[in-house]
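Repro:
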Amino acid sequence: MAEPPERALTHSKVLRIAVPVVIANITVPLLGVVDTGVVGQMGAAAPIGAVGMGAMILTSVYWIFGFLRMGTTGLTSQACGAGQTGEVAALLTRALMIGLVAGAAMIVLQGPIFSAAFAIAPASAGVKTLASDYMAIRIWSAPAMIALYGVTGWLIAQERTAGVLVVQVAMNGLNVGLDLWFVLGLDWGVEGVAWASFAAEWTGLALGLWLCRGAFAVPAWRDWARVFDTEKLRRMAEVNRNILLRSLMLQAIFVSFMFVGSGLGDVTLAANQVLLQFLHISAYGLDGFAFAAEALVGNAVGRRDVVAMRRGALLAGGWGLAITAVLALAFAVFGPDIVALMTNAPEVRAAAQGYLVYVALAPLLGLAPFMLDGVFVGATRTRDMRNMMALSLAVYAVAVLVLSPSLGNHGLWLALMLSFVARAVTLGLRYPALERAVRHEDGAPN
């Protein structure tokens, strides 16, 4: 029998899921540019540094809860595939509760959080005061921002990424408009930037919930016996815990990359910071296709359809390959020009250009682990993600210790590339076990 049209896996379906996410990602750096630009009109360095530091601290803390987006996507897409309408609604309730409780905890613990952040990244008295004022306002939208991770994951699971785009564009557009009004019009300074973000973030959550309104028509969203089902909560906790540990290990690679690079001199540190932006661009380009893999694979796992799971992974991966090939070529050809746009310091430009070969290779080497992450998230095979990331972190650490002393920054970049290869190989070796688990009749893999 032919697949129902809504389940048919085609190139156009992959693009319908992926393209809105790619467009939404474009709006993220634009907001940072506007935030910096409006406070830059105040004519002093401290406000710029305060907004940058405050945003960095809060974003880093919010990032910890990124597991909620991925875990919700995997679990919800499987429930959709299995036709479990009640469980789909209950998952949204669980995700919202986790987000709101975590955000409330951040508000209560804001003092220790801010103190710890400033201990790690000390700042001048002026910057610290302004950054504290900024964060003291924005922290009150922490429940909205963390809950929005869950809403985003829930929408992606149902292949409703156009809704994700609407939320992102509306939220960032409102933020930009309020930035201009509060800072340039009302002269509220750094606090104006914070109030703009506060209003935009709560508005984003409200819009996201409106897009999820169909779930609230299903009585199961407030069926508390179902919502607090012990086994469902245990599974959700395990999935999210493994993703969190995996993400912390991935972050450890990039943080240590910067720390080790800082020991090679200020120019090398600056060059590495510039070059890492190329990797961020690659991630923005691939996000949509990794999300497509999550949704398509999760839906297929829910239906116990290994063929559909494999086809979804291959279709999303094929488009990912096309994107990475374009990015790799663009970085190889236009890399010097892109570096020149990012910095006008001659010594930093010269240093960065000496390592452009690595950022040209990075999209190609990073494609497989990036897409396999999407496959394993959709299948909620998060224990494998955690364990394979631990092996990859070990490979990276050994490579740094062996290569960096003799090759310097080249050794550091080679270690980073090897970590990509290690993730691809280790996850690839676990893929057959994933297919076997999907065929098993006892339920979705954990």
